[in-house]
Design goal:
It is a single chain. The chain folds into 2 domains: 42-450, Metallo-dependent phosphatases (Purple Acid Phosphatase, chain A, domain 2); 461-516, Nuclear Transport Factor 2, Chain: A. The radius of gyration is 26 Å and the shape is globular. The chain is an alpha+beta fold. The chain has an 8-stranded mixed sheet, covered by helices on one side. The protein contains 8 helices and 29 strands. Keywords: Signal. It comes from Portibacter lacus. Residues 41-142 form the Purple acid phosphatase N-terminal domain. Residues 154-339 form the Calcineurin-like phosphoesterase domain.
Length: 518
């Protein structure tokens, strides 16, 4: 036994040494022309028109060598030559020529077709091409005229590390709800509005899902950017070429504010970035003239923020009274890179006599995140606001499956690994507000920064303590692990609120370089 003690001690020291070496993430590097189009169709996107029973809009991209776009569409059958009954539709062509400062130049043709007069509740097969270079045949189904049971998916911000980690999220969503009728994207699909490389990541991450399940996207703040320094921020130059959405919104906000009817549900998309007063006038009219049983509104900036130091008070004061007035069922939001779900109390005049208000609900508000960027939760929940937060999460990628079945709308939120994280049911009453059934007890326990794998890079406690002791009044604001000369170092920023220093610190805690940040 004595002979093994030195070996054991050596291995222990070796292990402790390795434990101090942080893991450096190796981000993928893409070739300069990786995102460039060819003569073969790519970025195939399907959207519903305003009437999901009869309208499909199809968009795709090619190189500028392709001068003509065609869609062939037929009712899908189990016989492989279903294409014998296909109809042909010629596409509108749009030249896209991206030549912006600090962006890779890309020229492309975008092709779009609006197909009307389709049959309801019918599975179609379509393909896109130029008559010679074709995509595969792709299935998509129209809505039923009767209020059959259906599900749809809702996703918050993808934004960062899209191909790396958002891909697993959207694919897990497809696994959980392969027959989803459509998919809501609540803004910030990418990080930099006009960076075509990021849009390539988004399309590759979703792959065939984007072409099979109609998307219902609204723009977030990251879909807006200035073309030149000093100019106002404007909608991504890639937004309208890539999506062909209903144009039933207010003038000047085409394809960013719109609505769609799917069976007994009206889905309304708002643009929380601009021209808000104009949208409120339009929204009142759309809600007033709405005979659907269920109404869902989606927009990017939350009325009740999930994360610290965020409050969209002007937006809330403008929009909430309208959602209350028309008893909107759900508000699906993004922006805060955390998860929170809560609800408002119904307006007193809407509560029937003798009914306990606690069993009823006003609009249910959800904020969710699907991508790789994570923020801390607001520490005091929704205190001080006219709403109660019931469920929250940090550091967790999530997607949501919502199922409409007659008078019941069931909501389920799942993690990227397929675990149920949150659930509830809203029940539509003949008179008065909705009933609410809490189901989160069926889900896994809460996930927060303190009980999940570390999100930010961190300095070892002893190194941080020693560093701060030598810089009185300063605190660490940023840490990043970096490989340097076959070793790992810490890239650290410290600040006292006025002065900032960037440092390189080795694994033993020695400061290698130190520079003041101007």
């Amino acid at each position: 036994m004595k002979n093994f003690l030195p070996l054991f001690a050596f291995l222990l020291v070796l292990n402790l040494g390795y434990a101090q070496i942080p893991k450096v993430y190796k981000a993928p590097v893409y070739e300069k022309e990786w995102n460039h189009p060819t003569i073969h169709p790519d970025r195939i996107m399907v959207n519903f028109g305003a009437e999901a029973t009869s309208e499909l809009n199809i968009t795709w991209r090619t190189s500028t060598d392709v001068k003509q776009g065609i869609v062939e569409i037929a009712k899908a059958t189990a016989a492989p030559k279903f294409w014998r009954n296909a109809n042909t539709h010629n596409a509108e062509l749009e030249l896209f020529d991206l030549k912006l400062e600090n962006e890779i130049e890309v020229s492309a043709h975008y092709h779009s077709v609006k197909i009307k007069d389709l049959e309801a509740n019918t599975l179609y097969a379509y393909r896109v091409g130029d008559g010679m270079h074709w995509s595969e045949w792709i299935h998509v189904k129209t809505a039923n005229t009767d209020p059959d049971r259906f599900s749809f998916i809702y996703i918050g911000d993808a934004q960062n590390n899209v191909l790396e980690v958002w891909s697993r999220l959207i694919r897990q969503g497809f696994q959980k709800a392969p027959d989803a009728a459509f998919m809501i994207h609540a803004g910030d699909l990418i990080n930099h509005a006009n960076t075509d490389l990021e849009w390539e990541e988004w399309f590759q991450a979703g792959s065939f899902i984007h072409s099979m399940i109609p998307s219902f996207p609204v723009p977030g703040n990251h879909e807006y950017r200035s073309i030149k320094d000093g100019e106002p921020r404007q909608l991504s130059v890639l937004w309208r070429p890539q999506f062909t959405l209903p144009e039933n919104g207010p003038e000047g906000l085409e394809e960013t504010v719109y609505y769609m009817d799917y069976q007994d549900l009206r889905v309304i998309g708002l643009n929380s970035n601009e021209q808000k007063e104009k949208q409120m006038i339009w929204l009142e009219d759309v809600l007033k003239n709405n005979s659907n049983k269920w109404t869902v509104v989606t927009f990017h900036h939350p009325l009740f923020s999930a994360s610290s130091s965020r409050d969209n008070d002007e937006w809330r004061e403008m929009l909430k009274p309208i959602l209350d007035k028309y008893q909107v069922d759900l508000a699906l939001q993004g922006h805060d890179h955390a998860y929170s779900r809560g609800r408002t109390t119904p307006l007193e005049e809407n509560i029937p006599t003798g009914v306990n208000a606690k069993d009823l609900t006003g609009t249910v508000y959800v904020v969710s995140v699907s991508g790789g960027k994570m923020y801390s939760l607001r520490p005091n929940a929704w205190e001080g606001w006219d709403a109660d937060r019931d469920r929250a999460a940090e550091n967790t990628q999530l997607f949501q499956v919502l199922t409409v079945d007659g008078n019941i709308l069931k909501y389920e939120s799942y993690t990227a690994t397929g675990d149920l994280y949150d659930a509830f049911e809203v029940i539509k009453n003949i008179k008065g507000p909705n009933s609410f059934v809490e189901l989160k007890g069926q889900a896994i326990s809460g996930r927060y920064f303190d009980n999940t794998i570390a999100y930010p890079d961190q300095l070892p406690a002893d190194i941080e303590k020693n560093l701060i002791s030598k810089h009185e009044g300063f605190f660490v604001t940023r840490v990043a692990y970096q490989e340097k000369e076959n070793d790992v170092v810490y890239k650290v920023r410290i600040s006292n609120g006025e002065t900032k220093y960037d440092m390189i610190i080795d694994l033993k805690g020695n400061v290698v370089t130190k520079e003041e940040v101007e």
